[in-house]
Design brief:
It is a single chain. The protein contains eleven helices and 24 strands. The protein is globular, with a radius of gyration of 23 Å. The two termini are 28 Å apart.
Length: 445
């Protein structure tokens, strides 16, 4: 355990580390530290592992129809495949079961302190970190523990980005409050936002609401989940590696053949090239638009009473506006240390400018997030190990390597939305992480 009495003092031979959060990122961090023989404390404010994938956790953004948007084939942690009997795109309950199985298989669960909340992390004058934690059994008795290293792996989808709809007198909710399609029964529903969750929820509304519409500020590319009977990411990986510009042209042409002209369904034409926004993997929305079960609208211009007017001049009455407007990447217990709440100041999305402070799970990418998470976890663990055992190598990373600013977009000209700040192309990120690891003598799976 970490020192729980003092905020300064001699550094231990094996640096003490705190992992905050037992969702996918926290579990990846724990496995990596354990693989390196590093001692750590691991805390989770909920009652079990899984993080946001546990729909019963207060504040989880999960809803009953939620599924993974990447395939089981390419979304697993290295050396731990998802079960063969899982469908191509597992449900949120199957992902939770997978994470629980992962934690149990690598003996991570017994090392986690559940029902333990970190309320604050501060940096001491000596350059260590004091974490203030409370346990559910004694919420009014905060405990102060001091560590050499802190890994924030508490997730980025807990702080909803709520927008105002001035003048609207009906019900306005963020999608974080949504769980079941029956909530829409008998209501005129407007879903605002066209991310993957927004499109999923709009499809739920199309099936159960009295009237359903979706508002999008721009046009998007819609990618089907299967092409020629294969999960789309498996299909993409099975072909030859192409320059991004060529891939955009070839796959864009294929999508036009499959989907046709989406403006016929009331959608706007994309104002960007393919892959220049986070992929929308959804073919059901086009199905419901084509059957008239949902109507597409542009952005909201104004609202008066129950009536919403859109930027094209059209208007409609609604009982409920559901905001699928995303989340802010906050670290509420240490925001001043991590920087901007939309794009924390982390080298390669993991290494802070404050020695010993890390983040995991902040990577926004187009594929294979768990595999990138695992690579970053291994690199963090290697860096912590170097600090105690290879100080010269540790200093090399701190003072030289970690100051470059690589372009990890893979040649994409991403749209200028807050979500795409720091967005990386999975292949470009993987190549660069392996290059850095090779320079440092770190092994990656």
């Amino acid at each position: 355990m970490a020192d729980t009495t003092a905020t300064t003092g001699p550094r231990s031979t094996t640096p003490s580390t705190l992992i905050i959060g037992a969702g996918p990122a926290g579990l990846a961090a724990a496995r990596a530290l354990a693989n390196h023989g590093l001692d750590y404390d691991h805390v989770e404010r909920h009652h079990s592992v899984g993080g946001l994938w546990d729909i019963d956790n207060p504040g989880s953004p999960m809803y009953e129809s939620a599924h993974f948007i990447s395939s089981k084939t390419l979304s697993n942690f290295p050396s731990f495949p998802m079960p063969q009997d899982y469908p191509d795109y597992p449900s949120h309950r199957q992902i939770l079961a997978y994470l629980q199985s992962f934690a149990n298989h690598f003996h991570l669960t017994e090392r986690i302190q559940f029902d333990t909340t970190v309320t604050e992390v501060t940096r001491t004058e000596a350059g260590r970190f004091t974490a203030t934690v409370t346990e559910a059994s004694a919420p009014n008795e905060p405990i102060h523990r001091t560590y050499d290293h802190v890994i924030a792996a508490s997730g980025v989808q807990w702080e909803p980005n709520v927008i105002d709809v001035p003048g609207f007198t009906g019900e306005v909710r963020h999608s974080v409050t949504y769980r079941d399609p029956q909530e829409f029964a008998g209501k005129r529903v407007l879903v605002v936002g066209a991310g993957n969750s927004g499109c999923d929820i709009a499809c739920d509304a199309a099936r159960t609401a009295a009237h359903a519409e979706i508002s999008m500020r721009r046009g998007y590319w819609f990618i089907p989940k299967h092409i020629f009977g294969m999960p789309v990411d498996v299909f993409a990986e099975s072909g030859p590696a192409l320059p991004m510009a060529v891939e955009q042209k070839v796959f864009g042409r294929l999508l036009r053949i499959i989907n046709g002209d989406v403006t016929r369904l009331g959608l706007q034409s994309p104002d960007h090239k393919l892959f220049e926004t986070h992929p929308i993997l959804n073919d059901q929305l086009l199905h419901y638009l084509g059957h008239g079960d949902i109507t597409a609208r542009p952005g909201i211009a104004s609202a008066t009473g129950a009536t919403v007017t859109f930027t094209d001049g059209s208007a409609q009455d609604f009982d409920l506006i559901l905001l699928a407007t995303g989340y802010r990447h906050t670290v509420p217990y240490a925001q001043d240390l991590y920087g901007d709440e939309q794009h924390p100041d982390l080298y390669l999305t993991a290494f802070s400018k404050h020695t010993g402070l890390y983040g995991l799970g902040f990577v926004e990418t187009n594929s294979g997030a768990y595999r990138l998470m695992d690579m970053l976890a291994e690199m963090i663990a290697s860096h912590i190990w170097d600090r105690a055992h290879r100080p010269r190598q540790w200093e090399r990373f701190e003072h030289h390597i970690a100051h470059d600013r690589p372009d990890l977009t893979g040649g994409l000209h991403l749209v200028g939305s807050p979500r795409h700040q720091g967005y990386v192309d999975s292949h470009a990120m993987t190549r660069y992480l392996r290059m850095v690891a090779s320079r440092m003598g770190w092994e990656l799976r």
